[in-house]
Every structure is written in structure tokens, then in C-alpha cells.
Amino acid sequence: MAEPEQPTRAGFVALIGAPNAGKSTLLNQLVGAKVSIVSRKVQTTRTQVRGIAMSGPTQIVFVDTPGIFAPKRRLDRAMVTSAWGGATDADLIGVLIDVQKFDQEENTRLLERLGELKQPKFLILNKVDTVAKEKLLAITAAVNERGQFETTFMIAALTGYGVKDVLSWLETRMPLGPWLYPEDQISDAPLRFLAAEITREKIFERLHDELPYRSTVETEQWQQRPDGSVRIEQTIYVEREGQRKIVLGEGGQTIKAIGQAARKEITEAAEATVHLFLFVKVRENWADDPERYREMGLEFPKG
Ligand SMILES: Nc1nc2c(ncn2[C@@H]2O[C@H](COP(=O)(O)OP(=O)(O)OP(=O)(O)O)[C@@H](O)[C@H]2O)c(=O)[nH]1
Ligand SMILES: [Mg+2]
Q1: Residue range 211-218: mean pLDDT, rounded
Q2: CA gap 80, 63 in Å, rounded
Q3: Does a structural domain hold residue 303?
Q4: Nearest ligand by distance to the CA of 98
Q5: pLDDT digits (tens, 9 = 90+) for 71-110
Q6: How remote is the CA of residue 241 from the centroid of ligand 2, in Å?
Q7: What is the pLDDT of residues 23-72, one digit of tens each?
Q8: Structure confidence at residue 191 as a pLDDT band (50, 70, 90)
Q9: What is the CATH number of the domain that holds 288?
Q10: Of ligand 1's atoms, which has the minimum distance to the CA of residue 38?
Q11: For ligand 1, which residues put their CB under 6 angstroms from it?
Q12: What are φ and ψ of residue 251, in 5° steps?
């Protein structure tokens, strides 16, 4: 005899933490596919990115957020506001801490401000592969002293270690109710957004210092061809002519490498042959242009 069907559950879990804590890496592991870009550099994620996972009768919508830090520029402020917004709207909040840097100032400040968020929180100590086991208990105790957490997980988002435990714990913590997305959907972001993010990830991988932070990528054209392939045009905005030259590289080498790497990954995401055309434009004030924020899904901070 078939077992009686379990009631379905669905809800939102925000992942918040300092820049580089591993939020996007964890989101991708939870979902089982790459929906959010990752880099070794801080401040990679700029807006909320949703990834959808199923665990038994439960659908969990994970919300990856930009890292929380002390903002300086307008874009920084929009990112941090977006991160707090993601947390405010969630049913449950997962606070990620990189165990290598658990006492860094950003974590101290984040833990101090957690009380502003009314939802229940749980702690995720990440990158446990980088620290000796004995240290982890001391870190767990120290962090739990500074905040109220329902439970603590020790994971390595990079390898997937401990990630299943997070999912199964969340399974019964989501509110009863119908699923919010079709069962097989893994993201709510349009492909053109993901494609722009993939190219931005390649910029973060290949360019250094200020450049990743002084540039943004937008998908301008997404044209389905009769043969099933897609023609995609993207614009990389930078602030100075000098930056444009760096993105292009000697004899166009750098942009070519960025394009090749991006095309490969966009092809997988789009499940179609992709023709990718990248254009680099100097737009001195792109970081003060409301239109750029709209494209990124960010609110434009006034003043
Ligand atoms: N050793 C190790 N590295 C990890 C682990 N999880 C993530 N990383 C690395 O940490 C770096 C940052 O990862 P991201 O997922 O981009 O971090 P994030 O919190 O999303 O960063 P922002 O978007 O900038 O806030 C990347 O180089 C990851 O490969 C882990 O469990 N162990
Ligand atoms: Mg991220």
C-alpha cells in the first residue's frame, strides 16, 4: 500500500555573511547546479540570487545575497541594502562564517546587527577543510556566545561536506503550503541575467585590483536563430579608457579569453550553441546611473 502523501512545505532561506564567506558556493551545492557566480575575490555577488532546492516534500528557496560589509560607494550601499532585504524577507536565516576569518571585523559587526532581524537564525561554519578540528569547537562556542542560533552546522561548501545535513534539517522547518515554483526549476533568474553574471565571473577571474569593481556586464541581445543557436551580445561597462584597454588586453587577448570562457559556460546554461559577442564601453558614471542598477536588480540608493 502506498504511504499517505506528506503535506508539502515551502519557504525562503536567506544566506547572509561577510564577503567571500562562501554563500554562493553553498547555494550552488544546495541546488546542485551553478546558479550564482563564485570567485576568490570579495564582493562578487551584487544582488539577491535565488536557487531552488527540493528535499522530500519540501521546496526550499535559498536566497544568496551580497556580502555584508561597511559600504563606501553607491554600489556598495545598494549591495548591502539588498543583502539585508533578502534576510528580512526570508522565513529563516542562515548566517555563514568563514572559519579562517571568524574574528574579522565584518563578522563582529554582522553578529552585532543580527538582533535587528526577527527571524530564527542558524549558524553555518564554512571552510572547515582549512582549519584544524580542535579549533572548530572553540570557534563554535565563540560565535554562539555572540548570537542566538537554533543550531550550528560545520560544512565545506567547496566539497559539499555537510551540505546534505543542512538540507535535511531545513526540510521540516519550512512552513506548510504549496510549492512556489515547479518542482524541476532551480532558479528564478532569466538566462540573460545568468549569462551576464557568467561573463562578470570571468572578469573577476582574469582581471585584478580595481577593475572587477569598476565594471559591470549587461546582456543586450538574446536572439534565437532558426538553426537553434543563440546570438548573444553583451556590453561590459568600465569607467575609464585605460580600463577599457586592460579589458581588451594586448591585441584583444584578454577579452578573447573572457569571451571563450564565458561562451563555454553560457552554452551549458542555455543548452544551445552560443555565439557570444562582447563589447566594452566607457561609461564614466555607470555606477551612478539608475539604469545600471535596474539591470542588476538593485534598488538605486539616492544621495
Ligand atoms: N577551502 C574552501 N574554500 C571555499 C569553501 N567554500 C567556498 N570557498 C571559496 O571561497 C571563495 C569565495 O566563495 P564565494 O562563494 O564566491 O563567496 P561569497 O560569500 O558568495 O562571496 P561574495 O559574493 O563576495 O559575498 C571562493 O574562492 C570559493 O571557492 C570551502 O568550503 N573551503
Ligand atoms: Mg557570492
Answers
A1: 98
A2: 14
A3: no
A4: 1
A5: 999 999 999 999 999 999 999 999 999 999 999 999 999 9
A6: 28
A7: 999 999 999 999 999 999 999 999 999 999 999 999 999 999 999 999 99
A8: very high
A9: 3.30.300.20
A10: 16
A11: 17, 19-25, 38-40, 42-45, 66-67, 126-127, 129-130, 156-158
A12: 60, 25
pLDDT at 71: 96
- Residue found by looking up cell 559587526 in the block: 109
In a domain, 115, yes or no: yes
Is residue 64 within 8 A of residue 22, CB to CB? The reply is no
**What domain range is 104 assigned to?**
9-171
Q: How far apart are the C-alpha atoms of 119 and 227, rounded to whole Å?
A: 50
d(CA 15, CA 19): 12
Per-residue pLDDT at 303: 76
Judge if 31 and 80 occupy the same domain. yes
Those residues whose C-beta lies under 8 Å from the C-beta of residue 284, and which sit 6 or more positions away, are 239, 240
**Same domain? 210 vs 127:** no
3-class DSSP state for residue 287?
A: helix
Q: Which ligand is nearest to the CA of 126?
A: 1
- Nine cell digits for residue 77: 550601499
